[in-house]
Amino acid sequence: MNFIHQIEPYLTENDIAAVTDYLRSGGWLTEFQKTAEFEQRLAEFVSAKHATVVTSGTAALYLSLLALGIGPGDSVIVPDFTMIATPNVVRWAGAEPILCDVDPQTLCLDLNKVRLRPDTLAMIYVPINGRSGDMQQVRQFCRSHGLVLIEDACQALGSQSAGQKLGTFGDVGVFSFTPHKIITTGQGGAIVTNDDAVAEKIRKLKDFHRLQPGVDQHDGIGFNFKFTDLQAVIGIEQLKIIEERIEGRRNVWRTYAEQLADIEWLQFLPLGSDDTVPWFADALLNGVQKQPFLDYMKQNGIGCRTFYPPLHTQPPYADQTGEFLVSSDIAARGVWLPSSIQMPSDELNRVVETIRAYTPQAIEEQQTPLPKPHWDLAKSRVESQQSASD
Ligand SMILES: *Cc1c(COP(=O)(O)O)cnc(C)c1O
């Protein structure tokens, strides 16, 4: 019985051929024409004016902050539930992240809970797992409070809000190409923007602040966050079939959500919109212990992954004040099921059958900090629909 990993990269013969062809072509490996082509295809795919690729999603976020002029003395709103790179880059830039609780339906930053300070200049909004909520509302919120909006769309390439691609709602949007993301170039990230000056600043920052590519004249202190053509040829192939890759992610999510719909202790969050591309198949455990479930799956040759911890519980962010009820709750209960798009249907079935055969262990009140799901998703959904119709 093979082990089913929680996630494996999806590579095709075309990726392999493209790399081989490139290596035989005499290219110099570093970024050049293939990188420019990848950037152009990416910009076209999301309908942005500029796309610039760099070494990682983290580097892309960091350069975004610098290019937008966020630094010491500024604070930035960041969700409490995201990959830790999101607040880390704020600290790298010398600014201060202010963590904010998340919304129980989208798992994204809850605009009603944002605590603004006089020094708050920006928000990094993270469409977590492809869910975004209403991006026009997010944009409107930032505009009305004079905040710069950075969309950390690392998990959301191809997802849309009201027909517009995520990553294009903010002043800048960022993507990641690490192996488990929607497309992968091994490592890598991209910044998209419609702002010529920001794009130019980012281009300089990633390349030693050169006035022109390849010219050793510098009008500032830059980094070397350049991409490579070797990576770009893989990225180009993957963008060519991005619709297939997206459909694969949808298929995995749909299979579990449909075939496990009657399992009461496992709750699939609605995608919210047909425009959402689920990056991972995510689910919340209801009233049952997480670790025994993960152990059981592993014993049966199936890798699952627990949600990110809420960031305020991580030592670098332990100084954050405020209430984080929803992020604490969903992080305690959330698991990512195997989500590789190339999983054959017999493997998907194996995951389904293994879960169906499980006898969950109820949570014992005294032993867990979050004894039972105190956040009733169904209830909160009804309430928010009611308040939306008020
Ligand atoms: C993956 C990810 C990142 C970091 O991207 P890297 O390419 O791994 O540096 C940042 N933010 C979010 C939300 C991510 O999912």
TrEMBL record:
Gene: epsN
Keywords tagged on the record: Aminotransferase, Pyridoxal phosphate, Transferase
SUPFAM superfamilies assigned to the protein according to its UniProt record, in alphabetical order: PLP-dependent transferases (SSF53383)
GO biological process: polysaccharide biosynthetic process
Active site: K181 (proton acceptor)
Entry-linked Pfam families: DegT_DnrJ_EryC1
Keyword presence, Iron: no
InterPro entries hit by this protein: DegT/StrS_aminotransferase, PyrdxlP-dep_Trfase, PyrdxlP-dep_Trfase_major, PyrdxlP-dep_Trfase_small
Family: Belongs to the DegT/DnrJ/EryC1 family.
Enzyme Commission number, as recorded: 2.6.1.-
GO molecular function, one term: transaminase activity
Basic and acidic residues composition-biased segments: 373-382
N6-(pyridoxal phosphate)lysine PTM positions: K181
Location of the region described as Disordered in the Swiss-Prot/TrEMBL record: 365-390
Naturally occurring in which organism (per UniProt): Symmachiella dynata
Name of the featured protein: Pyridoxal phosphate-dependent aminotransferase EpsN
Gene3D superfamilies: Aspartate Aminotransferase, domain 1 (3.90.1150.10), Type I PLP-dependent aspartate aminotransferase-like (Major domain) (3.40.640.10)
